[in-house]
Amino acid sequence: MLNILYEDETVLVVWKPVGMESQSGHGFDADMVSEIRRYLSTGKPVDNHKLSTKSVEPYVGVIHRLDKPVSGVMVYAKTKNAAASLSKQVAEGKMHKKSLAVLCGKPVDNVEKYVDYLLKDGKTNTSRIVDKSAAGAKRAELEYQILEEKEQGDGAVRSLVEIHLHTGRHHQIRVQFAAHGTPLVGDTKYGA
Fold first, then answer.
1. What angle do CA 59, 16, 51 make, to 5 degrees?
2. Any idea what the Cα angle at residue 32 is, between residues 31 and 38, rounded to 5°?
């Protein structure tokens, strides 16, 4: 069931659950774009208005992405003009991306900015930090602030951080925190 937070004639804001792709995948697993197209095709009423009445496959523009193991708020465009406008806002830094994550351990500083260069490996679907001169390297920048720290029963420390992304690279949050010694709790790809 699609959890719609906001909808008008051009934009749809939804909650993406853990385990679902943000965009259409190559397999048969459920993905957000397919779920949104199914919803838009049925023309279900929203706030007593039938906004979606198209008989052709509806347009769904992916504005940003969240990794499959992550849940959160996603913005999708229902028209090409809305997609262009929203994408421009992202490119100009007018759309702010904020995330919460729980880390294994505690970063050195309570507030910090990470600037690294990431290289994506399409064969392994992973990214890694490389020297900025490496061919294909892309700048990855984020800021974080520790909101809370807790010591676990086994003595391990967990830190809740608020993250502001300045770029949106492949697996960026997961890669940068793991490389800086505090992987995300439960991240089996980059973490412990």
1. 40
2. 95
Joined tokens for residue 90: 């992202």
- CB neighbours (10 Å) of residue 10? 16
pLDDT, position 16: 95
Q: What is the mean pLDDT of each run of 10 residues along the chain (192 residues)?
A: 93 94 79 92 57 71 88 95 94 86 95 96 94 96 96 93 92 96 93 74
In this structure, the dihedral spanned by the alpha carbons of residues 75, 78, 82 and 88, taken in order and rounded to 10 degrees, is 40
Over its C-alpha atoms, the chain yields an Rg (Å, rounded) of 19
Q: What is the pLDDT of residue 32?
A: 94
Inter-residue contact 14 to 74 (CB < 8 Å): yes
* d(C-alpha 61, C-alpha 188), whole Å: 30
Q: Do residues 180 and 107 make contact, with C-beta atoms less than 8 angstroms apart?
A: yes
CA 170, CA 129: separation in Å to the nearest integer? Answer: 11
CA distance 171 to 104: 17
Strands ordered across the beta sheet of 72-77: 3-7, 11-16, 72-77, 61-62
Q: Judge whether 12 and 76 are in contact, CB under 8 Å.
A: yes
